[in-house]
Amino acid sequence: MAPVAVSRTQEATAPAAAPAEPKQSLSDLPKEALNRVWRGNAEGTIKLDAFPDYWTKTDEESLLKKRQYVKEHLALTFRYWGKMGFNEGAAGHITVRDPILHDHYWMNPFSVHFSSITVSKLVLVTPEGYVHPTLGAQLPINAAGYWIHSAIHKARPEINSIGHCHSVHGKAWSAFGRPVEVTNQDSCLFYDNLAVYKSFGGVVLAGEEGARIAAALGPKNRCAILQNHGLLTLGDTVDEVGYYFALLDKQCHVQLMQEAAEANGIKKNLIDPVDAAFTAATLQHPTAVHFSIKSELDLIAEREPECLK
Questions:
Q1: What are phi and psi of 84, to 5 degrees?
Q2: Staple partner for 81: which of 86, 207, 218, 245, CB 3.0–4.6 Å?
Q3: What pTM was computed for the model?
Q4: Would strands 131-136 and 161-165 be described as parallel, antiparallel, or unpaired?
Q5: CA dist list (Å): 146 to 8, 104, 127
Q6: Of 236, 215, 239, 206, which is closest to residue 73 (Cα–Cα)?
Q7: Residue 35 lies in a domain
């Protein structure tokens, strides 16, 4: 079956009516999306910095610090996924681009539980899909992880991180081959940002299936439902990938509950596309997504500091 991309998250059609007017306007808000959602003191001395001061620097010391940061946040994100119950056998993988070797990717080793991932267990994968001979852990990796992720990284060079695993609610909803609907504020994160790959070719053991998934994602979507398979998310950072995935799995759970209620005669209401687009313009900003998961990662770092070693 040929892959089909569905980027609209609203399948239901409303009765014909005059175009809705937005209840709020972006023109009245700060240009920077993150600055719309927090406030400091009147003097302006309270600051909110998303990333360390070395994040955009290119000297060797800064790049080495950034590499360590990326690896730590990859380990923390896996610990978070473990707490969410996303581990399923040997399935599941996250890749994140190395800040120094841009065509290399850090990822988890094969069949190691998400909740036991540490920085020292992370594997650096070469462009050819092999474990780097000197950098990173010398452990095997998931072949499907390479085939899926390498194809998407190639098709979407602006993306630094990709995540996929077989979460329960994601698997359950994926059987319908439908996007989740925008029925609450959090789900606006997926408004015009979600693809459905309407095919299942079995365990991904070759590059062709990875390329078809990449094509179904299209040029802008950062989230996908893989029919009869599970979920997949993309991001500028691994933090973004981790949050997108967890929230999409939760929204699949919400959707399943709503479908059950609707089957018993309780009609659900969809958010108007104008209001969904207004909300998405803030929620989907990469830095805003980063802060959405920050408290979870900070808590894990505080309680499980061994994962940073």
A1: -80, -5
A2: 86
A3: 0.89
A4: unpaired
A5: 28, 11, 10
A6: 239
A7: no
Report which of 66, 114, 60, 46 is spatially closest to residue 86, judged by C-alpha positions: 114
Tell me, yes or no, whether 186 lies in a domain.
yes
The 10s digit of each residue's pLDDT in 56-85 is 999 999 999 999 999 999 999 999 999 999
Distance CA 209, CA 192 (A): 24
Assess contact for 224 and 9: CB atoms under 8 A: no
Residue 67 corresponds to which tokens in the numbers above? 């590499």
Identify the CA nearest to 99 among candidates 59, 61, 67. Answer: 67
Distance CA 34, CA 32 (A): 6
What six digits make up the tokens of 289? 């997504």
Number of Cα atoms under 13 Å in the Cβ half of residue 234: 27
Residue 143, domain member (yes or no)? yes
Query: Taking a C-beta distance cutoff of 8 angstroms, is the pair 194, 187 a contact?
Result: no
Listed in sequence order, the residues at least 6 apart from 206 whose beta carbon sits closer than 8 Å to its beta carbon are 147
3-state SS, residue 271:
coil
Residue 26 lies in a domain: no
**pLDDT digits 0-9 by tens, 111-167:** 999 999 999 999 999 999 999 999 999 999 999 888 889 999 999 999 999 999 999
- Read off the tokens for 41: 């003191």
- Residue range of the domain that includes 60: 53-308
Pairing of strands 123-125, 131-136: antiparallel
> Tell me, what CATH number does 75's domain have?
3.40.225.10
Domain count, the chain: 1
